[in-house]
## 1
Amino acid sequence: MSLTHYLVLAAILFTIGAVGVLVRRNAIVVFMCIELMLNSANLTLVTFARASGTLDGQIMAFFVMVVAAAEVVVGLAIIMSLFRTRRSASVDDANLLKY
Amino acid sequence: MIQAPDLSLGALAPLLFVFGAACVGVLVEAFAPRETRHPVQVAIALVGTLGGLVTSLLLAGERQVTAGGALAVDGAAVFLQATIAGLGALSILLFAERSLDPARSAFVAAAAVPAGSPRDRELMTAHRVQTEVYPLTMFAIGGMMLFVAANDLLVMFVALEVLSLPLYLISGLARRRRLLSQEAAVKYFLLGSFASAFFLYGLALVYGATGSIRLSAIRQDAAAETGGGVLLVLGLALLIVGLMFKASVAPFHAWTPDVYQGAPTPVTAFMAACTKVAAFGAILRLLYVAFGTSEWTWRPLVYGIAIVSMVVGAVLGLTQTDLKRMLAYSSIAHAGFLLTGVLGFGGGADGTGSGLGATMFYLLAYGLATLGIFAVLTLVREGDGEATHLSKWAGLARRSPLTAAVMALFLLALAGIPLTSGFTGKFAVFRAAIDDGAWPLVVVALLASAVAAFFYLRVIVLMYFSEPAADGPTVGVPGLPTTIVLAVTVAATVVLGVVPGAVLDLAEEAAIFVG
């Protein structure tokens, strides 16, 4: 399998993630879609590292994983606080701020 | 044997100060008893930011690439770091205000208690404060200062997250109207990480196209590649989307009004002033250093975005009835004006243009005026919270002439009326754009300024020429911290408007990127 296949797979995953963020209603699922986008970027980085024969891209993927972990901590805390107040994690119910 | 990268500690001193203060703040949270935390945290945060300000001023004239090539400490980085540290110190003072809210702080007593629960009602009047806001803010300030000095895309991404994650949290910590505040935090978080993901994918594509994420290496590769490089152009577009989101430029502005309105007002002030500086610092560095030789790939894109941002900000600003939302749209319009300066890239006698210096001056002037105007918003209160609805401000000049006068000054500065800092800033960025032949953009910018001036002046007319309502808001007496913020921002707004020469020259001299 050529490296292009991996790049195409990563692009498809990124698109699925981006579309998911736009159409899904549950904040947790939206967040999972964002994680999917980050991971597709990781796959792209690792593929390019393989293609160029250097390790840079793989090191970058580690950085991204650490950042994504920090993001989960902050994100789940924020979504939790909203859920405990409203008993709902739907992004449609959060509609006090508009116009 | 691995060679350790060279690390010039002197050049990193501003960052070390701020991050050091943030870490000490975390330790204080863990070990100090609750009663003593607030004053101690404020002191640590002020020492950290002022230390960062002083050390970055001492670094003026420094030109070097350090930390194994990951950080560029050059004129622009140092100028913007000093701006961020200074505005950060003023924001900390706003956070520390204890005499306006009856419960003695704008921040919630315990963020983990669900809003509206019996325990929450108990804590509503308690003098307890979630003092974690101070270390979080210090991490955000540190991330911003790292962001403007990042010389490779990975450091830029990490700095972007270091500045964003604390901001998501502190925008959800309002004491009053907690539901709005939490909703703002969720929206900011989801949209912010969505934009970060775009930035990251752009980073990956640029890495694939050039084999490097160092800005100087990308520059060489972009110059060598003529016409081709779809990956590179695609990557650049995604990077721009990620950065424009942070700078709240339309059409990536959807989060701005909601977050500005929902977040506690001191946090809004901090976000509006400092995040703008940091995001534009990174945009300038990315476009000028990495893509400076392939200007025509990004110029049409940025041109279009600037127009959209000015028009959206000015027109939608007209329809707002809430002052915080109105200022959010004003910040979107100002982001468009700033992009006008970014486009003043070439032109001029030696072909370098004055865009960089002009944009940096604009950022300083805008940051100070914005911080000031949000400080005024914290003063006018009704019931327990702030009276941000426009109608409440009717006839404020009778009730409190001084507050109305200060507010009017900041509104005039944001509108760009002569003898205020806003006029000097606008003049500088528009001149830079005209030098580079972007006069159609400047025509649009002038029209947008005229439209925007209407909604600023409407508030002034309302304050001075309307009858005050019988059940109008009360104007709180600010404590020492807010008084200092107001004094500094008023003085700076007037000085930068009347005698801007020295600071303009400083910005021009600092307008140098190494890379």
## 2
Amino acid sequence: MSLLDVRELNVRFDTPDGEVHAVRDLSFSLARGETLGIVGESGSGKSQTVMSLIGLLADNGRADGVAELDGENLLAMSDAALRRVRGRRISMIFQDPMTSLNPYLTVADQMTQVVREHEKLSRQAARARCLELLEAVRIPEASERLDAYPHELSGGMRQRVMIAASLLLNPEILIADEPTTALDVTVQAQILDLITDLKQRFETAIILITHDLGIVAGTCDRVLVMHGGELKEHGGVRDIFYSPQHAYTRGLIAAVPRLDEARSERLAAVGAAGPAETSARAAAAAASTLLDVDDLKVYFRVQHGGLWGERRDLKAVDGMSLVLKSGETLGVVGESGCGKSTLARAIVRLVPATAGRVCLLGQDLATLDRDAMRAARRDLQVIFQDPLASLNPRMTVGDIISEPLWTHYPKLEAREVRRRVVDVLSRVGIGGRELNRYPHEFSGGQCQRIGIARALVLEPKLIVCDEPVSALDVSIQAQIVNLLMDLQAELGLALIFIAHDLAVVRHISHRVMVMYLGTAVEIADRASLYDRPSHPYTRALISSVPIPDPDKEHSRSRELLSGDLPSPISPPSGCRFRTRCRFAQARCANESPALRPLGATLVACHFAEELAADAARQ
Amino acid sequence: MVSAIVVGSMAVFVIVGPWFSAFSYDFTDWSNLSVAPGLEHGHYFGTDTLGRDLFVRTLYGGRISLMVGIVATIVSLAIGISYGATAGYLGGRTDHIMMRIVDILYALPFMFLVILLMVYFGRNILLIFVAIGAINWLDMARIVRGQTLSLKRREFVEAAEAQGVRTPAILRRHIVPNLLGVVAVYVTLTIPQVILVESFLSFLGLGVQEPMTSWGALVKDGAEELESAPWQLIFPATFLAATLFCFNFLGDGLRDALDPKDR
């Protein structure tokens, strides 16, 4: 018999614009100890489904239907009864571990609060229970962490605390709403591994909500695919991946950029037209040097510790060099906090470099005066991560895209400006009729297209893309990546493509640079980086990325990284990666490895040759 | 919406109203000293102890009060926004110096400043504008600077910088329009505040000169006669309170109206 049985669940919201039907006639069941994945893009109703189950819908929301937990209908329960169910029988982990812990309470306070709410336990007993669970979620030095405040813990640690807190009362169902979306891949791999392990130990049924098909493949038994509030497909994880029945599921699977397959020129875009002609990207190889970054350093002065703390340098980018040819794409990957965005901002001189040179077409940008720099910016554009935030909400789309023209060609006639704007908008797939609309009237994907149009209107030679697709849904992500690749082929653009998603980077880049704590640890062309990663960090990163293929995912052996990124204020001595490296030896603490060639690859590791030899033997 | 209509009609009324009145603001009706409101003698709001028509005096007082409120607010708006946005956007040392100047001005006691001005230049309605404006822009500058600091790190401002847009254009096109929401709210809080300050000054006898008057001065006179002639307090006080109330509501309305997301 199933533990949870949901039949014909409907969730509706009353909004000023009329009723929104967020979930339509959804039925599913969950057995004891089973992991059910709910997959869908944003707005598919996946979160609202579980919110309605535990009675946490927003005030204007209504749920009807039947949701039976062991024969008791959750939707018909009183608030008091529901409160007893929440926490004790069903508990929940939220997406953002930064905001779901109260910053004024210590870990022990938050956790014992939950226990004592539901069970009569002495303070000591509650504390002992908390400690036990913190150890179960593999928090190192758990007894000390009990009295820590949330800000003293890293993101991964906080999510562990959340998981521990949700398991305190030994619930029958654990709902995890995008539990790893806010985390880095290496930490995500640790958390997923932990969830799978805990499921076996505590025999908890898990509902895992996610947009990432890779996560589903590795952890779930059954999968619901939702789109626009409706259930599109429901089945075992292998059926979903190997014989998807619904067109939407097939589209979703095809749209995911993958690490494990030969690279195709285009990602299948869900709901979009068929593949266009392939591009001639090989021409890029012979081109000349466009950008030359030499030993770039960007330090920020920060106050360390309290009001009177000493001032220290945060070394966001610490001695990076790279060369980019015109028409080439360089991917930059690394965990958050490794300095990727600072590198991007330093290249386009949004933050001043502390030392080093950035040369565009042989011109050192740092030496340029204000007017010359302004002229140089014509060739150097940037696309930001958050599409909506990068457009001024009080300007129309037409004005937003005209602004670079007004700035650089103030003598241009209004009609000519308009012609160019319409032209560039059509290039990114937005009609000229939209000129007078405001950014908030567009979807995230369209906003990103507008951002790209703004970057393109000056016909630059280089565009620095700072995580341009990480805020977008998988299918939209595919469209934007394809658009960038098409534009590159047509216009001969060079791209620096910064992302934390290794699969996307693999898809779009010619060469890839891996960053760790402000330094490059490996630079290689795409094929050798992904097929034969040389640096231990690259290997761990690649092995942490979940692959949307259940069989491969289960058979894969992982090189999990332990711990979190050290602070860039006081990085480890010698090799910065040594604190998390499996192969670290005494030499790594004393000597900082330089980037040196290993075959076609540049790698910064003392033992790269030995590791390569090892890998070859296996 | 209702607030806007009330404030608007109040403004029209105080401007147009006196033209239709049979009395002027300083005419003394010897036969009707301190009479209660009534229709038969033509003094709709009654008269004060000197026999002056309270109806026309309330409207004249309204002219002064609203004018002080609006002019002083515009002054503080103009200085505050440009000063605050510049300090916030440029940041660093410039910001430090500019904001320390604000702090120093803040430290000057307001009453002291007003009394000083009065002593040196004599009583003058213009001085009140200057004094109130000179104090109020400090608040505005601080608020605007704070908002600018947070706007500056927004990606659309960075995008403009990356395109090489000049600093004045960034301030004009990107920073200031996005400040409007907050500023609109603050303005509608400032106007009543300024009206109150003026009333307060008049109450202390530092404000407008007899026989000219303002709501504050009328309230002061009315308060003295509260027991014998309550209408002298009630009418100006009602006008004052209604106006302040409506301005406060207007703020919320304006903020929503200025938001392009609701268009």
